[in-house]
Amino acid sequence: xxxxxxxxxxxxxxxxxxxxxxxxxxxxxxxxxxxxxxxxxxxxxxxxxxxxxxxxxxxxxxxxxxxxxxxxxxxxxxxxxxxxxxxxxxxxxxxxxxxxxxxxxxxxxxxxxxxxxxxxxxxxxxxxxxxxxxxxxxxxxxxxxxxxxxxxxxxxxxxxxxxxxxxxxxxxxxxxxxxxxxxxxxxxxxxxxxxxxxxxxxxxxxxxxxxxxxxxxxxxxxxxxxxxxxxxxxxxxxxxxxxxxxxxxxxxxxxxxxxxxxxxxxxxxxxxxxxx
Length: 276
Ligand SMILES: CC(C)(COP(=O)(O)OP(=O)(O)OC[C@H]1O[C@@H](n2cnc3c(N)ncnc32)[C@H](O)[C@@H]1OP(=O)(O)O)[C@@H](O)C(=O)NCCC(=O)NCCS
Description:
Blueprint: H1 3-20, H2 27-38, E1 42-47, E2 51-58, E3 61-69, H3 75-88, E4 93-95, E5 108-109, H4 114-119, E6 123-134, E7 146-147, H5 151-164, H6 167-178, E8 182-187, E9 190-197, E10 207-212, H7 221-235, E11 241-246, H8 251-255, E12 259-272
Parallel strand pairs: 3-4
Antiparallel strand pairs: 1-2, 2-3, 4-12, 5-12, 6-11, 6-12, 7-8, 8-9, 9-10
């Protein structure tokens, strides 16, 4: 990894920590994890005196990992420059957050930085919630859930997630597996539900993905695997985990499992870069 990429990555992590009100002591651990994830990725960055910005190229899409504007007025300039650089590198869309394995955030907070994205003619792709949940006191289910212990099982689950949901979830579950943090349920020999923690930004306390196969929904599998992952996060000392990308109708599932301490509405914007 180049020295300049590392400088930009640290700068966007520092800004993210300040904006999220996280402990500054997390800086090195999160930045090291991000830098490790970025090794081998194609990146586009800006470090131009107005601040820093970083995006990862993934096929025709570019994902904005973070911005660190020295003054809020500079955010518009940073987003515009990031768009121009991503377009030069062949990207057709720049998205305002996640969800590939490198992300710090799932989108832009409502009211914050939206001006910069609107100025870049971004359109809203989705709005959703990031929740901060206190996992302490969640009981580990006694049956019908197992910790995923073998790589072969993890790969079966990752293939299912990739086929039915996204490559990002497959990545996330593999990273969580490396940390012994994947819990799943089977039915008739097939994995039907999975929940994980620590699949990205592990030092900061993160949860996800959570999924149940469509045919097995509404039978308690989702709640059970989620409880197992939350209880495991609490056992590792986390008093708070961030659950990103929660659709409005799934918020109440989490509210039924644990205390939701805080929430932020996020907007996923996309800037069309073709013709720029
Ligand atoms: C969300 C999901 C994992 C729930 O799985 P599930 O196995 O059907 O969940 P459960 O049967 O354990 O239900 C748990 C509770 O959540 C509620 N619930 C689950 N999914 C819901 C949904 N999509 N909308 C509203 N409520 C839902 C159930 O009604 C239940 O509440 P109850 O105990 O009061 O009846 C599943 O719908 C899914 O895979 N969705 C697509 C992926 C997704 O959105 N993941 C969450 C990412 S944050």
